């Protein structure tokens, strides 16, 4: 029986300039998009900057789960509770409205959580800067919101990979593992232009052979921690619905996950404005230098300086990092040690 021919609609890409936020990748602005019913729009109640808000989810410029094209469009992939999904976000400058297109089995879940992902539950108005640098940094970035993904494992595993190594090494390991053990993203993002990937499911993380961890430059301690976390993934995912302190405690029950890793994770999954990172090699010195001229500040010094921002300490630290103010380097960079070469 003959049927009507279906011709998918396409949307011609536009070319504008990205200002701030995640860096753009080279090449055409946006690939042609097939018609899709998985579309939603969201108009935030106050200014919103997509790049600043979602930037912490990007693990390096070549992260296969995050792309920013030259027209300001952001692409993101996730393994949601309903399955893999790709999300495409475009903001209209005139109205501030964000259009979201989604593909894959997890598309409805992604779209239902769109306002939360874009920081609807975050209230930057409660932040009262008491230092000129913070006031200026906040004034220049009115569109900064703290995202809340509601997905724990996808932020926890990259944070574990970043333990005790340079960020470049961690980004490389994450990229290699996803290209090897992930799957192509649903929709146009999985094509040759963007080559985006979906992170492996928990079972696949537990089945990665030891030599593949080694080839990615991941030592046995970090690999074992990821495997332990993946084995209890269901329990860890429950942390996204908890209060931040309880969520961190849940994560830290897994051997190998400490305060640094739990804070870096919960900041992204729960949108926690007060969960400041401790145990970081550079952050105490940056905060100490910015607020008190103390480049040798310890975690205790940093926490004391952030006391006036109780309840908003993570936001304060984020604004300091975005200001670009940091102490002059006195020591050489941390040495890169790629165990894959051993």
TrEMBL record:
GO BP, sorted A to Z: base-excision repair, AP site formation; DNA alkylation repair
Keyword Manganese appears in the UniProt entry: no
Segments passing through the bilayer: none
Compositional bias (Pro residues): 25-34
Name of the protein: DNA-3-methyladenine glycosylase 2 family protein
SUPFAM superfamilies listed in its UniProt record: DNA-glycosylase
Record lineage: Bacteria, Bacillati, Actinomycetota, Actinomycetes, Kitasatosporales
GO cellular component: cytoplasm; protein-DNA complex
């Amino acid at each position: 029986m003959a049927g009507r021919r279906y011709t998918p609609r396409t949307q011609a890409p536009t070319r504008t300039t990205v200002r701030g936020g995640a860096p753009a990748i080279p090449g055409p602005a946006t690939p042609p998009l097939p018609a899709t019913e998985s579309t939603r729009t969201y108009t935030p109640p106050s200014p919103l900057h997509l790049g600043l808000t979602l930037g912490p989810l990007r693990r390096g410029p070549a992260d296969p789960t995050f792309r920013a094209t030259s027209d300001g469009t952001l692409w993101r992939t996730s393994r949601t509770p309903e399955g893999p999904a790709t999300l495409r976000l475009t903001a209209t400058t005139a109205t501030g409205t964000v259009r979201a297109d989604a593909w894959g089995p997890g598309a409805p879940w992604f779209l239902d959580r769109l306002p939360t992902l874009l920081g609807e539950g975050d209230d930057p108005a409660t932040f009262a800067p008491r230092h000129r640098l913070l006031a200026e940094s906040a004034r220049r970035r009115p569109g900064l919101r703290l995202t809340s993904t509601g997905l724990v494992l996808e932020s926890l595993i990259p944070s574990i990979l970043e333990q005790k190594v340079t960020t470049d090494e961690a980004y490389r390991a994450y990229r290699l593992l996803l290209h090897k053990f992930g799957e192509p993203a649903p929709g146009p993002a999985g094509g040759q232009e963007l080559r985006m990937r979906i992170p492996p499911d928990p079972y696949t993380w537990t089945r990665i052979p030891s030599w593949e961890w080694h080839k990615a430059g991941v030592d046995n301690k970090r690999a074992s921690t990821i495997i332990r976390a993946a084995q209890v993934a269901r329990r860890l995912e429950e942390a996204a619905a908890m209060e931040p302190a309880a969520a961190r405690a849940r994560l830290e029950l897994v051997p190998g996950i400490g305060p640094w890793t739990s804070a870096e994770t919960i900041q992204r999954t729960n949108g926690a404005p007060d969960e400041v990172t401790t145990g970081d090699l550079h952050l105490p010195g940056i905060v100490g230098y910015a607020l008190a001229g103390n480049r040798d500040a310890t975690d205790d010094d940093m926490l004391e300086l952030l006391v006036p921002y109780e309840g908003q300490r993570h936001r304060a630290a984020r604004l300091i990092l975005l200001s670009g103010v940091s102490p002059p380097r006195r020591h050489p960079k941390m040495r890169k040690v790629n165990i894959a070469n051993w």
